[in-house]
């Protein structure tokens, strides 16, 4: 059936005919995107025109007007209809009756309707008071009735908008900024709002409004395509969900991707991010131009008075670098600049802009993109130095980098960048796409350039550390290969190339080892020293580790993590300096630990102490207001089975999160009978204040004697919470790392974090008749990665087959 046939069916059969024709149109596989939106608008136009004609017979001075998205002729499958019934103020009773004849059929079909009935004067008055109404009227389109009435309103509304632009545009900009603060940036969100988030459809509409003011205009290249892509995704989302939603939820992304004929949800998100990036950049450039024009208008009368009505003053241009000047608060090319003869000019201009904290002008970037020659390979020293200067400029680097990215200059300088550009990261810990995370890491690393002897290597490694995420397999392994090639291409010598490649290959080594391995074990420290190789590389890796974590998100770094990494670095540095970590003497217990152990031996029951930890990580100066690292929980208990699950269960009951856990036997002084286990744990309250030590001890006594049913209490609490629909977490995975220690068997658990998880693990290990020497707990967002150093009852590492059996049993328990 053709589009004309569909429209005729709607006209001939009234509301039911329109509904059938609408359904037929939306299910036509051959028609999608702009043609379907336009056809749906035409179909709706014809239906509403018919309703109007039937209800307005003999009535003059009335017109039906489409506004907003419907006014633009863009109807998504579940879009609401924005309609204005315009009248000259004559027969108001007849107008009210006509409104009923129009609105009720729309409601009867279950369509959302945004409607109003106003005279032209009322419409203008409301627009003057409500910016959203005025924006909708800018897209007013005549549907039926008195064309002159509609045309007069359009003319007056546009005139009002242009006359009031100096006042209304700052108001519109503030509205956009508030919405961005509320909704976030579309180009980085895993579940974005296609309409409201920054870079979404609302911002695209705002750019149209700015253009209509004649005050400034948005960069048009790519903007129409970006807007079309976002509308196509919204169409597919409406069809997939059957709802008028703009939120691209995780559980619907695969279906939306299939609706659009895309490979998978990641491909979908990448296209959404690319479109949002175009809209966001156009918004930045446009609002900057609006500000410049408004400032110029405000200054011009005063200048004219000062000059006595004389000629126009020359625009001041301040030199910044060779071929680069500042003008009107932007960085532009000097008149004598010759991009076609100066391949380093883009990097020089970018570095100068970032150092000055100024934006690169759109005209300058486009001229560079159109005329500049490729940088020779390997890069000359100046090009490499300008890149390092750009990366080391701190927060201004981001805006300058995005300007280069918008015109394709980054991928021309660094072709490998294409694979990580706009690439989503499906991990709640990460705030950014891969490419933005790399720039954020460089920004964080710029704060640490005074801590290292080679800041240039630190900054380039920060830029490249996740470059392997665009390739299959382990991104650190792939990244090492790419980093070698990139570092050589940009002109580093062989030694520096090796250092950068090592930093990229091992950028997760320190944080993973510090949070998941026993730092008292010589094998742990030696393995890190062997991987790093030198003091200089260790220094750089320490700074890169912190910069990477800070750029990831709040869950990836804390004073506690910093203290663990600093402790590991100190130990590795000692090994690299020649110290031998083998056969270390067991650290003597502190006076407090010995006191608790003696009391536990004397009373035959557990004793404990809680102490806040606020000391800074090793090598860092204490701040005026130290950040708590958590609370140290010291427990001494007569040696007996079930200690680990009992303690973990009691802590879970009291909603305490375990950060680290260490267990060891203490040798008591001569004359004291029995053996005592000492547990030194770091804990933090999930929320609220810490429980009293007396309550913890009381519950621990009951847990150890079997009178407290921890499993039952945790199950009751879990059952009391309503089950919420969410993403299904991957199954738990348990693995054995036989080479990680000579003193124990390392069993690593990766699982969805949950209350009582450590209790379940401890009980499973207890049931397997193994002893836990130490536990290293790490939580990243919703994911727990815990390592347990276990031995047999005699204190030796487990045989390979026995360790594998314990791991299998533990995995079955967690998956069950």
UniProtKB/TrEMBL annotation:
Keywords on record: Hydrolase, Magnesium, Multifunctional enzyme, Nucleotidyltransferase, Repeat, Transferase
ACT domain location: 632-715, 746-816
Entry annotated with the keyword Membrane: no
Domain (HD) ranges: 434-557
Catalytic activity, reaction form: [protein-PII]-L-tyrosine + UTP = [protein-PII]-uridylyl-L-tyrosine + diphosphate; [protein-PII]-uridylyl-L-tyrosine + H2O = [protein-PII]-L-tyrosine + UMP + H(+)
Function statement: Modifies, by uridylylation and deuridylylation, the PII regulatory proteins (GlnB and homologs), in response to the nitrogen status of the cell that GlnD senses through the glutamine level. Under low glutamine levels, catalyzes the conversion of the PII proteins and UTP to PII-UMP and PPi, while under higher glutamine levels, GlnD hydrolyzes PII-UMP to PII and UMP (deuridylylation). Thus, controls uridylylation state and activity of the PII proteins, and plays an important role in the regulation of nitrogen metabolism.
Family: Belongs to the GlnD family.
HAMAP family: PII_uridylyl_transf (MF_00277)
Protein name as annotated: Bifunctional uridylyltransferase/uridylyl-removing enzyme
Gene: glnD
């Amino acid at each position: 059936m053709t589009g004309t046939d569909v429209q005729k069916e709607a006209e001939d059969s009234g509301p039911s005919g329109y509904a059938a024709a609408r359904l037929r149109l939306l299910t036509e596989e051959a028609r999608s995107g702009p043609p379907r939106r336009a056809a749906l608008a035409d179909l709706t136009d014809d239906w509403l025109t018919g309703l109007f004609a039937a209800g307005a017979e003999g009535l003059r001075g009335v017109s039906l007007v489409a506004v907003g998205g419907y006014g633009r002729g863009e109807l998504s499958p579940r879009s609401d209809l924005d309609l204005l019934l315009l009248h000259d103020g004559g027969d108001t009773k007849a107008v009210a009756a006509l409104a009923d004849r129009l609105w009720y059929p729309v409601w009867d079909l279950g369509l959302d309707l945004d409607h109003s009935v106003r005279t032209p004067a009322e419409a203008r008055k409301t627009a003057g008071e409500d910016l959203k109404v005025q924006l909708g009227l800018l897209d007013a389109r005549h549907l039926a009735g008195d064309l002159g009435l509609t045309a007069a309103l359009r003319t007056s509304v546009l005139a009002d908008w242009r006359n009031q632009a100096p006042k209304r545009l700052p108001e519109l900009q503030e509205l956009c900024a508030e919405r961005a603060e509320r909704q976030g940036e579309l180009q980085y969100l895993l579940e974005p709002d296609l309409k409201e988030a920054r870079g979404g459809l609302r911002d695209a509409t705002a750019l149209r409004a700015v253009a209509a003011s004649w005050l400034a205009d948005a960069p048009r290249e790519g903007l129409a395509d970006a807007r079309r892509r976002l509308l196509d995704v919204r169409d597919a989302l409406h069809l997939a969900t059957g709802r008028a939603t703009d939120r691209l939820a995780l559980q619907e992304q695969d279906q939306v991707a299939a609706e659009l004929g895309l490979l998978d949800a990641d491909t979908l998100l990448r296209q959404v991010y690319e479109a949002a990036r175009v809209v966001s950049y156009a918004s930045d450039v446009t609002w900057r131009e609006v500000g410049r024009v408004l400032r110029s208008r405000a200054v011009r009368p005063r200048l004219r008075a000062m000059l006595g009505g004389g000629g126009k003053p020359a625009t001041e241009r301040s030199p910044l670098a060779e071929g680069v000047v500042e003008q009107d608060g932007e960085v532009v090319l000097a008149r004598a600049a010759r991009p076609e003869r100066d391949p380093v000019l883009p990097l020089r201009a970018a570095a100068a802009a970032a150092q000055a904290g100024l934006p690169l002008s759109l005209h300058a970037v486009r001229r560079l993109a159109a005329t500049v020659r490729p940088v020779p390979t390997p890069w000359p020293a100046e090009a490499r130095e300008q890149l390092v200067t750009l990366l080391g400029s701190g927060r201004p680097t981001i805006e300058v980098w995005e300007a280069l990215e918008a015109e394709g200059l980054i991928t021309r300088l660094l072709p490998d960048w294409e694979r990580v550009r706009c690439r989503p990261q499906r991990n709640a810990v990460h705030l950014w796409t891969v490419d933005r995370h790399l720039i954020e890491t460089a920004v964080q690393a710029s704060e640490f350039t005074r801590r290292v002897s080679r800041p240039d290597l630190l900054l380039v490694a920060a830029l490249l550390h996740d470059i392997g995420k665009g390739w299959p397999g382990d991104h650190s392994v792939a990244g090492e290969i790419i980093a070698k090639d990139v570092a050589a291409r940009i002109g580093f010598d062989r030694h520096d190339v090796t250092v950068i490649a090592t930093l990229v290959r091992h950028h997760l080594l320190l944080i993973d080892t510090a949070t998941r391995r026993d730092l008292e074990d010589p094998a742990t420290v030696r393995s890190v020293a062997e991987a790093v190789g030198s003091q200089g590389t260790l220094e750089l890796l320490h700074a890169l580790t912190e910069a990477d974590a800070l750029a990831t998100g709040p869950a990836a770094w804390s004073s506690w993590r910093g203290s663990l990494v600093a402790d590991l670095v100190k130990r590795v540095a000692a090994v690299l300096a020649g110290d031998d970590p083998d056969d270390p003497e067991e650290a003597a217990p502190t006076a407090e630990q010995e006191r608790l152990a003696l009391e536990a031996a004397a009373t035959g029951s557990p004793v404990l102490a809680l102490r806040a930890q606020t000391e800074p990580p090793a090598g860092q100066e204490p701040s005026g207001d130290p950040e708590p690292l958590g609370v140290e929980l010291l427990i001494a208990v007569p040696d007996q089975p079930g200690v680990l699950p009992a303690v973990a269960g009691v802590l879970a009951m009291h909603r305490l999160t375990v950060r680290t856990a260490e267990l060891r036997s203490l040798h008591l002084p001569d004359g004291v009978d029995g053996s005592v286990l000492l547990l030194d744990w770091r804990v933090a309250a999930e929320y609220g204040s810490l429980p009293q030590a007396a309550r913890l001890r009381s519950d621990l006594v009951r847990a150890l004697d079997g009178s407290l049913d921890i499993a039952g209490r945790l199950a009751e609490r879990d059952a009391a919470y309503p089950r919420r629909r969410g993403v299904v977490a991957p199954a738990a995975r348990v693995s054995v790392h036989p080479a990680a220690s000579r003193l124990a068997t390392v069993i690593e658990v990766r699982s969805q974090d949950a209350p009582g998880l450590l209790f379940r693990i401890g009980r499973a290990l207890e049931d397997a008749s193994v002893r836990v020497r130490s536990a290293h707990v790490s939580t990243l967002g919703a994911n727990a990665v815990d390592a347990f150093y276990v031995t047999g009852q005699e204190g030796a590492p487990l045989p390979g087959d026995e360790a594998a059996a314990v791991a299998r049993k533990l995995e079955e328990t967690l998956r069950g």
